[in-house]
């Protein structure tokens, strides 16, 4: 049977351990593309992914490989992102596979995301093949890493493949191992159709395209497909595979991975996790879908020019089509006008969306500091979900405020345990446990408020461990805490977009630091600007931006013309990111200042 020669697998790894490079080598080796045709990293197709060297959206590619047994195999490779924000995407791709390459950097060893991804793979019953990558590096220690794989993960590492995605060592061995170790997909291609949508995308010509793993039955051009969650039907116009660009095929059947187009106008009709069946011979039960992605971090997005508002909305809608985990709804700020409150999986996700909006849609944005969702119980007995600090009810209306808590695991060399414990203490963490995962590596588990992670945890973690620590976290629940809101007044007027929520014990300190920081960020204007931070009606700190001296430019007259031009250009560039709030001009940096104080 043909499906005996299909292998569906993905690559899992901690970020930077070499997934994308390895995927490229596999594509190159199997001749899906010649070396010349290969752009640096084929699978990371978004510009941003290439520049940052990270994978954001999962990608799939079909490879054709003639194994040593003489048979030609169809290998479907699904690349996965490695950052903690995108664990959701990883779990989606794994549900479409029977096996996974577990890639571990021969220098770095096992990291927090390696473990997190292994757990996901085990949940999905995947066959794991260990690959120790980057053995070309002089500092590679494959034997130590093998030991870690055995000690920490409990996999037999004696068979681990030593590879270099850079030089090509081990590539053939990997392909052979995929063929012999990863089981062929089961699924009956004569049964009623069941195809899992693991991703979807909008194409201007083909309409909404579903990326599917056919689990049972078959789907072809002309099939009347039915979405099992909504009952809606569509006639299939095209089916195809990624090789690695889209290529049409006659049909996709049980075990295969590819795409389906049906002139669907609305991407909402191709929901990720839904099951496609055949309307004429429907399956009785849908496949088990996915857990929904929950946004954890929120911020306000506003355009510098009010007239760009509609463009921002259109752009958010377009991005949402490709990335259902991005959510947004209109909000109004007294200070910033009309904008959107957007929800993201994490900070990296937030940065990436902002950057895409600015680059791909040419928008000039003001972003407010990120916030988590607080659960607020009011004296009326209501429970409100507050994702924008400025919407927090007045103190006398509040019975309690609960904040999200995450369970965070940090993997770190033993010498850094002290600094990490200190950091977690400062971040209001609760110690859970500590494990020696190998002779020199420790896994520390803490419960931490998510808001502290959003604040500056990553940067602190990195600097206090010289970059040796890695972090993974998941939502663990909500906990009532003593929290207060700090408001900022500029020139006596409340700037709602600068309000933030903070633990009572840190309130005074942060309120003070923020006004100091704001004073250094807000440029001098023609008049004096007092900056105050207040809790309720109590002022806790005050600074003043002095009025501008009129002779800033006149100094240059008659002098160096190029210096003057530079100064003017600098002012102009600065202007682009200024927002007029009342009669004060506030630069973008001011809205992020709260993240940069300590
Ligand atoms: P990903 O985040 O797991 O997708 O990692 P990438 O594939 O983007 O690789 C991260 C970095 O490691 C890049 O700079 C690669 O060039 C480099 N890299 C990947 N594989 C190897 C390897 O086998 N040897 C060496 N020396 N560098 C590698
Ligand atoms: Mg990558």
From TrEMBL:
Pfam families: EFG_C, GTP_EFTU, GTP_EFTU_D2, LepA_C. GTP binds at residues 16-21, 133-136. SMART domains: EFG_C. InterPro entries: EF-4 (IPR006297), EFG_III/V (IPR035647), EFG_V-like (IPR000640), EFTu-like_2 (IPR004161), G_TR_CS (IPR031157), LepA_C_sf (IPR038363), LepA_CTD (IPR013842), LepA_IV (IPR035654). It is a peripheral membrane protein. Gene3D superfamilies: 3.30.70.240, Elongation factor 4, C-terminal domain, Elongation Factor G (Translational Gtpase), domain 3, P-loop containing nucleotide triphosphate hydrolases, Translation factors. Its EC number is 3.6.5.n1. Keywords: Cell membrane, GTP-binding, Hydrolase, Membrane, Nucleotide-binding, Protein biosynthesis. Transmembrane segments: none annotated. Its main location: membrane. It catalyses: GTP + H2O = GDP + phosphate + H(+). PANTHER family: TRANSLATION FACTOR GUF1 HOMOLOG, CHLOROPLASTIC, TRANSLATION FACTOR GUF1-RELATED. Required for accurate and efficient protein synthesis under certain stress conditions. May act as a fidelity factor of the translation reaction, by catalyzing a one-codon backward translocation of tRNAs on improperly translocated ribosomes. Back-translocation proceeds from a post-translocation (POST) complex to a pre-translocation (PRE) complex, thus giving elongation factor G a second chance to translocate the tRNAs correctly. Binds to ribosomes in a GTP-dependent manner. Belongs to the TRAFAC class translation factor GTPase superfamily. Classic translation factor GTPase family. LepA subfamily. This is Elongation factor 4. It comes from Desulfosporosinus orientis (strain ATCC 19365 / DSM 765 / NCIMB 8382 / VKM B-1628 / Singapore I).
């Amino acid at each position: 049977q043909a499906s005996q020669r299909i292998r569906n697998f993905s690559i899992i790894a901690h970020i930077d351990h070499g997934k994308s490079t390895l995927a490229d080598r596999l594509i190159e080796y199997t001749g899906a593309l010649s070396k010349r045709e290969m752009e640096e990293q084929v699978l990371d197709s978004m510009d941003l992914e290439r520049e940052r060297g990270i994978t954001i959206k999962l990608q799939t590619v079909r490879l054709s490989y003639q194994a040593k047994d003489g048979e030609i195999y169809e290998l479907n490779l699904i690349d996965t992102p490695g950052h903690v924000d995108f664990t959701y995407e990883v779990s989606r791709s794994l549900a479409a596979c029977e096996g996974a390459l577990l890639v571990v950097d021969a220098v770095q060893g096992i990291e927090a995301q390696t473990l997190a991804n292994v757990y996901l793979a085990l949940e999905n019953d995947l066959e794991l093949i260990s690959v120790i990558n980057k053995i070309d590096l002089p500092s590679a220690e494959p034997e130590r890493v093998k030991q870690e794989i055995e000690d920490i993960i409990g996999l037999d590492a004696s068979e681990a493949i030593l590879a270099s995605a850079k030089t090509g060592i081990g590539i053939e061995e990997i392909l052979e191992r995929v063929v012999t170790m990863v089981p062929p997909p089961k699924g009956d291609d004569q049964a009623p159709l069941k195809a899992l949508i693991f991703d979807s995308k909008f194409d201007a010509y083909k309409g909404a395209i579903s990326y599917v793993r056919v689990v049972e039955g078959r789907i072809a051009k002309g099939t009347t497909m039915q979405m099992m969650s909504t009952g809606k039907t569509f006639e299939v116009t095209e089916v195809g595979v990624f090789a690695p660009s889209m290529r049409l095929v006659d049909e996709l059947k049980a075990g295969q991975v590819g795409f389906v187009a049906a002139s669907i106008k609305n991407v909402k009709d191709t929901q990720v996790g839904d099951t496609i069946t055949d309307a004429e011979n429907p399956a009785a039960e849908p496949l088990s879908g996915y857990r929904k992605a929950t946004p954890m971090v929120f911020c306000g997005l506003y355009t510098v020019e009010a007239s760009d508002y509609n463009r921002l909305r259109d752009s958010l809608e377009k991005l949402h089509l490709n990335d259902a985990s991005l959510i947004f709804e209109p909000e109004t700020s007294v200070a910033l006008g009309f904008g959107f409150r957007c929800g993201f999986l994490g900070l990296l996700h937030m940065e990436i969306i902002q950057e895409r909006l600015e680059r791909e849609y040419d928008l000039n944005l003001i972003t407010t500091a990120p916030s988590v969702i607080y659960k607020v119980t009011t004296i009326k007995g209501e429970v409100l979900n507050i994702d924008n600090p400025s919407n927090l009810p007045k103190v006398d209306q509040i019975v309690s405020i609960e904040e999200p808590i995450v369970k965070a695991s940090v993997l770190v060399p033993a010498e850094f345990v002290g600094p990490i414990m200190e950091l977690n203490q400062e971040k209001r963490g609760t110690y859970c446990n500590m494990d020696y995962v190998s002779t020199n590596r420790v896994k520390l588990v803490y419960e931490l408020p998510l808001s502290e992670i959003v604040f500056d945890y990553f940067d602190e973690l990195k600097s206090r461990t010289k970059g040796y620590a890695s972090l993974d976290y998941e939502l663990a629940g909500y906990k009532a805490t003593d929290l207060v809101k700090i408001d900022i007044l500029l020139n006596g007027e409340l700037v709602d977009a600068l309000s933030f929520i903070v633990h009572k014990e840190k309130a005074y300190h942060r309120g003070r630091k923020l006004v100091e920081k704001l004073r250094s960020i807000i440029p001098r204007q023609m008049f004096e600007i007092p900056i105050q931070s207040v809790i309720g009606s109590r002022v806790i700190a005050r600074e003043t931006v002095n009025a501008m001296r009129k002779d800033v430019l006149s100094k240059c007259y008659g002098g160096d013309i190029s210096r003057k031009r530079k100064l003017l250009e600098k002012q102009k560039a600065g202007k682009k990111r200024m927002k007029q709030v009342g009669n004060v001009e506030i630069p973008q940096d001011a809205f992020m200042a709260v993240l940069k104080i300590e």
